[in-house]
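Regression test attached.
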Amino acid sequence: MEDFNKLAETEATSIEKLTICEEHDPESNTINQPLLKSPPVLPVNPVAIVGAKVTHIESLDYEINENDLFKQDWRSRSEVEVLQYILSKWLLAFLVGLFTGITATLINFAVENIAGYKLLAVVKYIEQKRYLMGFIYMTGANFLLTMVAAVLCVCFAPTAAGPGIPEIKAYLNGVDTPNMFGATELIVKIIGSIGAVSAGLDLGKEGPLVHIGSCIASLLGQGGTDNYRFKWRWLRYFNNDRDRRDLITCGSSSGVCAAFRAPVGGVLFALEEVATWWRSALLWRTFFSTAVVVVVLRAFMDYCISGKCGLFGKGGLIMFDVSGVSVRYQVVDIIPVAVIGVIGGILGSLYNYLLHKVLQVYNVINNKGKLQKLLLSLSVSIFTSACLYGLPFLAKCRPCDPSTLNSSFPTAGRGGKFQQFNCPKGYYNDLATLLLTTNDDAVRNLFSINTSTEFTTFTLIIFFVLYYILGLITFGIAVPSGLFLPVILMGSAYGRLLGIIMGPYTRIDQGLYAVLGAASLMAGSMRMTVSLCVIFLELTNNLLLLPITMLVLLIAKTVGDCFNPSIYDIILELKGLPFLDANPEPWMRNIKVSELVEVKPAIVTLAGIERVGRIVELLKNTTHGGFPVVDEENGATELHGLVLRAHLILVLRKKWFLQEKRRSEEWEVREKFNAIDLAERGGKIEEEILTNDEMEMYVDLHPLTNTTPYTVVESMSVAKAMVLFRQVGLRHMLVLPKHQAARVSPVVGVLTRQDLRAHNILSAFPHLKNSHGNKKRH
Amino acid sequence: MEDFNKLAETEATSIEKLTICEEHDPESNTINQPLLKSPPVLPVNPVAIVGAKVTHIESLDYEINENDLFKQDWRSRSEVEVLQYILSKWLLAFLVGLFTGITATLINFAVENIAGYKLLAVVKYIEQKRYLMGFIYMTGANFLLTMVAAVLCVCFAPTAAGPGIPEIKAYLNGVDTPNMFGATELIVKIIGSIGAVSAGLDLGKEGPLVHIGSCIASLLGQGGTDNYRFKWRWLRYFNNDRDRRDLITCGSSSGVCAAFRAPVGGVLFALEEVATWWRSALLWRTFFSTAVVVVVLRAFMDYCISGKCGLFGKGGLIMFDVSGVSVRYQVVDIIPVAVIGVIGGILGSLYNYLLHKVLQVYNVINNKGKLQKLLLSLSVSIFTSACLYGLPFLAKCRPCDPSTLNSSFPTAGRGGKFQQFNCPKGYYNDLATLLLTTNDDAVRNLFSINTSTEFTTFTLIIFFVLYYILGLITFGIAVPSGLFLPVILMGSAYGRLLGIIMGPYTRIDQGLYAVLGAASLMAGSMRMTVSLCVIFLELTNNLLLLPITMLVLLIAKTVGDCFNPSIYDIILELKGLPFLDANPEPWMRNIKVSELVEVKPAIVTLAGIERVGRIVELLKNTTHGGFPVVDEENGATELHGLVLRAHLILVLRKKWFLQEKRRSEEWEVREKFNAIDLAERGGKIEEEILTNDEMEMYVDLHPLTNTTPYTVVESMSVAKAMVLFRQVGLRHMLVLPKHQAARVSPVVGVLTRQDLRAHNILSAFPHLKNSHGNKKRH
């Protein structure tokens, strides 16, 4: 251990930036810097947001801060105020559902109309055999739409690119990615999503809708944007991380609900995939939000059904209704179902693996500058347009089924719209039917029932390969992009292919194979089970599918887990978000917290009544989010608690200084600060200007100190400490010495999220990795 | 505070029994003793299990016990053993699903056949106009069946009475009700449930199935019953409370799944209602169990469909399939839906209130002796039989609908079986149709679609009132009884009644009103939302109902919550199970843990190397589950950790004593103990016999002590301490002094579950209640 200490000392400068610092500039550590060469101290992961620019990452604080001021605030709340608090929670949940529902409808409305009229024009050119004009029109329109989305994302809100789900997941785990839930992000995400989806790119609006829901929730919770805040007194109760966390959970489940019209699925998605902490009460409120979303969607559909909304119709909502189909299967059918699951799991984890590689390459490109980012997006758009338009020429014309001629030819019918494309009358081009349409309609076509001869094997193979490639290259570009739809597209093509191959041995319809294939690929890539199951249930509207869907999901997830983590975990890792897993790794039992503390730089503490100069110096020279406060009386030291950086900055800003070294009276503090001030965050030490006289004055930190931080004893194993840290949702965990008498300081260290991450510990203690049992215990 | 201390001293003897004692004889405190007259110390709640006999209640321990021995055990686990552990977890989940599925099918098979042949015989007597014989036959059969169930419950397994869900909920919260998950309980529950349900009592098999699933899980986890254990090496990994908790969660969700054939609903039920701690990994494994259950049920149904199982058919499984119905409703229909919800909530909470009163009366009767218990059950059986047989004579005969004559008359047809009863041919008795049938069929009749004229208002009123009364008087008797079905019966009758009243103003079918009514009453009584919603979804097989079901559930739950807690919480309270709520009450912020510690008797600690005599004395005179171990060196004291009572008893049993006062060597300990020994529980100090010589010897407690117990500082608020206690799942929480130097002891107290319960704190500090904000924050 001494070696570590020595090393730590020699690298003192870099340590200051790399250890518990939670606020630090990520742009300085791009992914190609050799940060991971097993540094001697616990490293902060490189932060390389895919196509995004962030300033710093901060941990959230779910601990009840028990300093004198907060306590007073709570005690002074009357019965009426508690009631206001509860009421406003419900009101906010209602508003989150309402606005998310309205926004989702608007997006659907815009996408269906823009993409619809675009495709109608293209089809017209083709009918007139003006193929080149058609190509130019389509490529141009897609180019422009992509440009709108990409320019917005690149220039105004880099964090709006991508799905946003990993960041939300990280937020709910306690990691605050900045500029994630602002008004700019919301607007860019909405417009960008409309542009990108209408442009026919291989991406969905599902992920962005989750982000949109969370943005709405966050903005509502703080009463508007940072600049124009609606000052409602009741909102002040929501000025803490715990309540904001709950609201954003509501928002994300509303988003999923709006994307799939799956209220229960939305709740479960938030529960299974997104949320880290969960309570029964939250389940209920989330459910309320999604119920509101469903009612809003329903109301708009009632309104639009009569054709008042252009090409909207029922579009974009009930995506793949197969409720009319009676599914017949027996216990024997478990075998083909298992095959779907196994192959789906393999394909899904392969997709994860490849996407990881592609994103690493994209990171390098995106980091080169805004122009490169933009060019990357636009080239993907052109490539996509070319493939979508060009490939159908490879397919042969097929005669329309005479028995269903009236209903299925050419643009309307069972399950979707058939495309005549370059074929004579009475014939259709099956590849064009899948490619020259919106993604939603493509899925609907693939899921259609009793259409076993409509799509040839050749077509499906081309479609699958094309969308596997598009799915890989599209995700990382700088536009809002969801992962759900690309995976569903690949999966349904794969399922249908498998259905054709297994046709002679099974009674399950090929449309259902497509559904199961989509489910298996999603489980293989995203590794969700219950929520996916319910989402598929609510999408397909067919309960008889439930048992086999469950089996497919379970098998695909199990197979996928053998190879690599879920796609969201991969993205979290890529973005360097310090996500804390639910379970400690087995080897964490073999290392004590004292060992972690030893490899960190020496702890810095503040005195109960501290000189202003020293506080400023500390704040400037360290990046710690909190400092232990130690009282010294008659030579004996005693831990008073932990004071947060934000509160220290607040003291400096308000210049609440004492001339002499004395304890302050309660009224003095209360005059200067209230609990709302304390809940504010994000002040910067650089902004505070103090005179030399002031630097020599004193601050009484006692009333601002959280006097009851959670502590652990230094002999505790990291596994056990992590249970506490993660379950209670801490930001700082104080480590106390085992032998009080022998130590000078009553506190030996402070552990944060970064210190407890498996990856970081392994970097500092590589021998743990090889000891044994590196697998997760489930 | 001093007054409290003085009072505490004067009542020293009773205090010893009443404070942190977690193991104590509940039969000595029946509910009619005046225990709740605000005693000066934190009281243990009176334990009065409804119709059950328990010996003592013990808290479970989810903390990672870090003593030298356990640590060694973990370190010595190889990669293979970790793999074994994971594999066996999945294998157990599979077996739990398999056995629960088989048991559920057996119960359904038995119930459908016994009740079916019984009713056929009764109908035959009625057809022959031998009404008295019919009555005697029916009452006699029901009497005998009830007797079997009641005798078994009273004599062999008192804990098998009732649904068992509250005890499971308490177990997963960390309270171990003894004799709950044994083989006797399992067998009695299975046979008793068959008897009670076949006897036509107003109770369901759903609750018991949850208990059965949990019993199966528990027995599998420990490798068989206490007497005949299957010694499989892999099972030793499951010898801790955490893994057992996970298994029982699996078991309970499998039970719900088997009861309703609702796999997702089962998982959600466990998540929302039963489980206290939840992890993503658990979600997945639970889901796997329920998937297995569904496959098993499906396989049996495939086998039985051709009539090989007597009257079984599809009976008892898909209870109310309305998948064929297309539901039409618009936004306007929210109004009648809201009415259903509001009234359902009121009726549900009224039911909770009345049931609470009835159970209190029953408690007094049940506590008088086994004979009284038995008589109570049998009188309820006779009363039920009389009502079911007698009341139909009040109803008028109604002509069968000629258009549906072929299909609906008399015993088979749309949605259920019509009864001719005392009517001439071509007529049916609508009340008999509902009463002279199994409960499942009655529900099916009420849920039937397009039968708006089949049941008169008069019939429905009688039915509703009868089942409201029966539901109240039946639940508390000494037979296995579920709450789901009685509530569904009441609720569906209420819903249909409301449907008739609202008929002119709505387009929703009366059968759907019945479904919604049932949902509203369940939400009003049991206060579940998402899980009920999914269960109803899976029951009715109709996704279009989802949005209105959600609204009804939300409204009914909200209304119900205004009046009283959920029925399970009421039963938990009645049984005196120290259930710990998820959220601390607001007023808990105004009290410090030091205040709680002060009203408790002085803390007893052990020295690191302790005399055997003192250990024996302590164990005999206190009932604490754990003791702090304090080392003293050169006058300074230091907390070494916490040693469990079970481990002390183990030391005494193994007679691991030292002649002189010295620290033991590591090999000495390891020779004598292994981790499996330490995981054992339930030894009694009275059983250990020691000689006087031995009493003078010493024990080195260091290697057996958990050196890293979770601790809090005495100035922490109770609210904050409770977050730690509840989130991490503690049994003992050590309270450290704020000012180390000023105190003699390094630990000022130990808090347990009982100390942190809101009710107990309020008894000791009545002024907190009136301060403000006594409501829960959601």
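Expected vs. actual: identical. Chain B touches chain A through 85 residues (CB under 8 Å).
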